[in-house]
Amino acid sequence: MAKKTPTTHPTKQLLIDTTVSYIKDVGPTSFPVEEVLSTSGVSKGSMYHHFEDFAHLIESAQAVLFSSYADEDIAAIRKLVQSTTDFDSFAAWLCQRSAGIQSGARRTRRLTRASILGAAGSSERLRGELAVQQQRVSAAIAELAEEGLTRGWVRQPLDTAA
Questions:
Q1: Total-model pTM
Q2: Number of helical H runs and strand E runs in the chain
Q3: I need a surface site. Which of 3, 45, 128, 140 has the fewest CB within 10 A?
Q4: How many degrees, rounded to 5, is the angle at CA 98 between CA 107 and CA 138?
Q5: Tens digit of pLDDT for each residue in 45-58?
Q6: Looking at residue 52, what DSSP letter applies?
Q7: Percent helix, strand and coil across the chain, each to the nearest 5
Q8: CA distance 93 to 77
Q9: Burial degree of 43 (CB within 10 A; 0-12, 13-18, 19+)
Q10: Would you say the C-alpha torsion 110, 25, 137, 141 has a positive or negative sign?
Q11: Half-sphere exposure of 65 toward its Cβ, with a 13 Å CA cutoff?
Q12: Do 19 and 63 contact (CB within 8 A), yes or no?
């Protein structure tokens, strides 16, 4: 499920994980709060302790889901960077991975990400949640770009944060 952080209360994490599962199965608007509470075993009062309202829980779960997809790709790239010794092998794998990302098998994932970004257009709270996740993802990508610089795979000068 979602990546656990040391600062996330277990009940809050359980609610997010349960909601992520529902979003993956039926989308962000096709289930009531009662289903999440019943499945998770968490009381309504506990949910409102951790989230302003049900929409806040949905938005938090969307941000976690959005970033989990990026985390999977970053982990694969990190593994490759650590195990590859030459740029040509890395570039060939990256092209193959890029084609895989565009495949029909990942269509649902792309649509989910697009839906989350669309929802952020009308929700300042979701935009804020996604901004936090994007900063974390951007830092991980910059770290990988630094490794590319160190190995001579990237032309200098490069602002790795870019």
A1: 0.79
A2: 7, 0
A3: 45
A4: 95
A5: 999 999 999 999 99
A6: S
A7: 75, 0, 25
A8: 9
A9: exposed
A10: negative
A11: 29
A12: no
